[in-house]
Structure formats: structure tokens, C-alpha cells
Amino acid sequence: MAQKQSVVIIGGGPAGLTAAWEFVKNGSNDYDVTVLEETHEFGGISRTVKHNGNRMDIGGHRFFSKDDRIMDWWKTVLPLQGAPSYDDKKLGRHHDLEPGGPDPEVDDQVMLKRHRVSRIFYGGRFFDYPISLKPATFKAMGFVMTMQAGFSYLKSMFHKLPEDNLENFYINRFGRKLYSMFFEGYTEKLWGRHPSQISADWGAQRVKGLSVLGVLKNAFAKLLPKKRSNKEVETSLIEEFWYPKYGPGQLWETVEHNCVEAGVNVITGAKVVEVCQEQGRISSVVYQIADGQRVRLTADQFISSMPIKDLVNAIDAASTDTEAEPTPVPVPKDMSRIANGLPYRDFVTVGLLVKRLRLKNTTTIPTLGNPPIVPDCWIYVQDPGYTVGRIQVFNNWSPYLVKDVDDTVWIGLEYFCDEGDSFWNMSEEDCIKFAINEMVRMKVISSPSDVLDTHREKVKKAYPAYFDTYSQMDELVEYLDSFGNLYCVGRNGQHHYNNMDHSMATAIEAVDNIKTGKTSKKNVWSVNTEKSYHEKK
């Protein structure tokens, strides 16, 4: 009988847990799998934070993919709703329900079908996102601004700029006027750098086929009677998505439970501090638990979703371990420099439970609440006069995220910052006071007295950034791939601004390589870069 291969997976986020499940699903018993998770929660930035009966989705996660493997994967974990949800019933809303699917009013293990509404707040006005051809859009922009945007776009069609930075990438697709309105300030707010200093790779990955022509084509197509499938629509413009009843963390908690039931050893509170190499392969990892005790774990294969910077430093840390045999090899200085120069953007989410929003629902979309709340999942605050980047309305993601969904509104305010900067280091009291004042100034709420409850959540390394030493990533990838049994997966594991489905796909590819003995890791790194993964199909 063939001996089981042992696998250590670093990280219990979407990539790590996907990898674990891929090894053990269908009753497979060929692999001895251990997952090491530094925290006591699952899902990484796709976790759900619970606070006084209300739930927060960190960052907002639409469950949609153009990769059928991923859609099927999600549906297997949490089946699609087969009966109307609470808000469907209250609003007389109809979806294509799944025959025999669970009833969200009775069953917790269920995936809801949701309608996405997002708008942009700019210059004290709201604009539809994706842009629509409604009279309200042109009214909000005004005649002069509409003409400026139109002629600016026409100029960009005939005069293309070299795409050596993100600013030129956006101008080529939207024209300078729309870029200055809807991209420049927000991008600088998000990254803390002007778009002219950021690699165009970020735009190529995040907006791909999106352009003025793509937006207009989508707007015209919506006027036609024929209903299009999500596969025919740019991912940035998708208006329907799936969503777990209790937020994204519910799905990953379910996956972790399923993994444990299938024999995976999941260790929480386990921070990986050393990654040991021997003869060009990874031989073991050392993890530290809360009391400072260190535990060494050997394995045949290693899958890492920890930030690349931390991974490289853990390999280097092992080189100073005097107990290791044979003598470990330190990380080459140039590789260490590239890894430690990789930048990240962190963020803070402030949850506010309020009696009502001052914003009026001027759309034709019916919503819950008395008076009815706005239908937005997200409001993007492009206006540079405000520090907040996005506002989530959790009631509209799932009514089950909010304890008293009829009489309160639970919103999440996202602030982009750097770990250790003045905003990050604010006391919770000052941070919440700042956030409330911004909401009053923005006329989202009437006064601080409307706020019933608050919660602050800090998120480290939320966004891998595309500047500084990022331009030398290829060299670092070559070095890490030289360890034949080490696979880097996920957003931070690849320093790649992946969506959740892309992170999962990197894990699926890595597991497939291990199972088939494939030595090239190009397929693992090229998820979300090859045409087959592009948003434009």
C-alpha cells in the first residue's frame, strides 16, 4: 500500500481551505493534511465579524465567478435558496429559485440570490455604477460636464498614452475628464499613492475589459428585453450574485467544518515563524502558539497563502536556527530586499448601527425599512473631500446580517490606511467619532444621536499593492518556484490582487499539480492573468 503524502497548508482563508478540501473531498484518503491558521477565525478578509447580534462582511464579497468550477464548488458547500428570503417576501421580489433548495427562513445552510446596486458619491451627488443612460445621470453631471466628458473621451480614442502607469491606463479607457472625476481621487485614497506612481498591472487585473464603450454597451443591452447571463457581462458590471445567509465567513466556517469531518487537522492560533529548507526543498515549518511554545512540523508538500514578505522572512529566520540539520541556506540578499519592499494597503472598517439613513430611496427598487432605505450594497465615495472610501449597507447584502432589519440600518464604513499611520493608530473612540462626523457631513445620517451601536475592525495586509519592488516580482517568483514542493496561492500568497474566486482557483491548480506530479507552477501563478480568467470573454 502506497504511503500517504503529508501536506502542510499555511493559512485558513479561501485559498488555504479550498486546497485542504480539494485533497479530502469525495472521501479521498491519499493525503495527510494539516492547516495552520494564525488567528482563531476562518476566511481571512472573507470572514464575517459578529457584533451584538449583527454581522459585518469585511470588504463586501459578491459570490460570482466566470469559472464554473468555482460556482459549482460554492453551490456544493451552501445550496442555493429554494424559497423566498425574508426581504424577498416583504418586498414581493422574485428570483429563479432552486427546485428543492433550502428555505432561508427555516434553514441556515443556504446561499441567497442577490441583486447588486452600487453608486458613486461625487460632488455631493449620486451616480449609478455601472453608469446608466437615465436622465438622472445627465442631470447629475450637468450639460457642461457631460460635454467635457464626451469630448475628453473622444480625444482619448484617437490619442493613446503609453500604458506605463495606472493613470494612463484609465485615461486611455475613459478620457481625462471621467478619470479625474471617478478614478484619480478614489485611487489615491485607496492606495495612498497617485495613480501615476502605480503599475498599470493593477488596472489590467481589476477592470480588464471595462471602458466607456463597455459601459455604454452594457447600458444599451439592459434596455433590451432579452435577459443576459452573467457570463455575457463584464465582472465589474455584474448585477446579480450569490451570498451566504450569514455572510462570507459562514461559507468558510462550513468548509473548515467539512474539512475536519473528512480528517484534516486544523490548528488555530498557529503563527508560522520558520520555513526550513533542505537540499533545495522545503522540509518543515515551525509554528508558534500563544504561550510562545514552538512546534516543528515536517511534510512532503507545502502550500502557502501567507504574505510573501512573511514567507521569505520565515525562510530566512530558519537559516539562523542552530538546531536545524543540515546547515540551512539563507535567503539571497536580493530576494530578501524584493520581498521586504513589497507594499500592502491596510484598512479599517467602522460599523454603525443607526435608526435611519437620511439618504432617500429615489430609485424604482423597493427596499426594506420604515422609511425605506436606499437599495445600495456599496456606495463608493469618490469625493476627495471625505476620508471614507466605501460605505456598505449590510441590510441589502442579506437581511439576516442585521438583528433588527426592519427598524435599524447597519452600515460599514471602509477607511484605507497603512498599519501604524495616524488613522490606524487612532483610539477606537476617536476613530468612531471621526466616522460619525463624516456621515453627518455627508448627509448620510442626520446627527450623532441616530447612532445606536458601533464597532471598529482593523484589517492588516488587505490589499497587496503594485508599486515599489513589485516590478521585480518575476525574480521572486523564480526563486520561490525553485523549491519544488512549495506552492504559493491566494491573494497575499502571490501578492496578486485576486478576487476570492481567483484565490480559490490558484489553490485548485496547486492541488492538481501535486496530485498529477506536474512540476511547472506557471498554471498556479497565471490564474487571473491568462485570457481564460479575464473578465472580458
Automatic annotation (TrEMBL):
<dbReference type="GO" id="GO:0016491">
    <property type="term" value="F:oxidoreductase activity"/>
</dbReference>
<protein>
    <submittedName>
        <fullName>Amine oxidase</fullName>
    </submittedName>
</protein>
<dbReference type="InterPro" id="IPR036188">
    <property type="entry name" value="FAD/NAD-bd_sf"/>
</dbReference>
<dbReference type="GO" id="GO:0008767">
    <property type="term" value="F:UDP-galactopyranose mutase activity"/>
</dbReference>
<feature type="region of interest" description="Disordered">
    <location>
        <begin position="85"/>
        <end position="107"/>
    </location>
</feature>
<feature type="compositionally biased region" description="Basic and acidic residues">
    <location>
        <begin position="86"/>
        <end position="98"/>
    </location>
</feature>
<dbReference type="GO" id="GO:0050660">
    <property type="term" value="F:flavin adenine dinucleotide binding"/>
</dbReference>
<dbReference type="InterPro" id="IPR002937">
    <property type="entry name" value="Amino_oxidase"/>
</dbReference>
<dbReference type="Pfam" id="PF01593">
    <property type="entry name" value="Amino_oxidase"/>
</dbReference>
<dbReference type="GO" id="GO:0005829">
    <property type="term" value="C:cytosol"/>
</dbReference>
<feature type="domain" description="Amine oxidase">
    <location>
        <begin position="15"/>
        <end position="513"/>
    </location>
</feature>
